[in-house]
């Protein structure tokens, strides 16, 4: 069966950056499963998997525009240290949930200058070219329930 919209796809992957450093991998664990055609994975990878089948292996280079997008400078802000009440020691790289008018947002500390803390709400891979090595392990027709919910369910059905 080929990967088309409304198929449930499982694959193992290794994601590296342009220098070959491993950023993420399913190696040694369960394959990643997703519902094709509904935006569960980055657009560039989803496009490259279209028409493929179980047993296929491929390498895919995804541009930032087809991955996590380009960094948005509006998501980088200076906030006062007092915004982190209850946190004794702040360090670059620490991640927090921030409450915004649009709802919760993940931010990371990217700079500390005295009482001014720089936080970045961009995805950590925004602006990066992504290099995927993919081994497709399974392709099947998605169930009606999976299509209605917009994601693949685990073995035995609905688990949320």
Distinctive features:
8% helix, 5-stranded antiparallel sheet, 39% strand, Thrombin, subunit H, mainly beta, 2 domains, 160 residues
Descriptive overview:
Helices cover 8% and strands 39% of the residues. The protein contains 2 helices and 9 strands, in the order βββαββββββα. Strands 1, 2, 3, 4 and 9 form a 5-stranded antiparallel β-sheet that branches. A 4-stranded antiparallel β-sheet has the order 5-8-7-6, with no helix packed on it. The longest helix is centred in the N-terminal third of the chain and has 7 residues, at 43-49. It is elongated, with a radius of gyration of 19 Å. The two termini are 28 Å apart.
Average pLDDT confidence is 93
Q: What is the top-level CATH class of the largest domain? A: Alpha Beta
The whole-angstrom Rg is 19 Å
Structural class: mainly beta
Number of strands: 9
Shape: elongated
N-to-C order of helices and strands: EEEHEEEEEEH
Q: What is the subunit arrangement here?
A: single chain
**Count of folded domains:** 2
How many angstroms separate the termini? Answer: 28 Å
CATH fold annotation of the largest domain: Chitinase A, domain 3
Uncertain segments are none
Major β-sheet annotation: 5 strands, antiparallel
How helix-rich are the residues, as a percent range?
under 10%
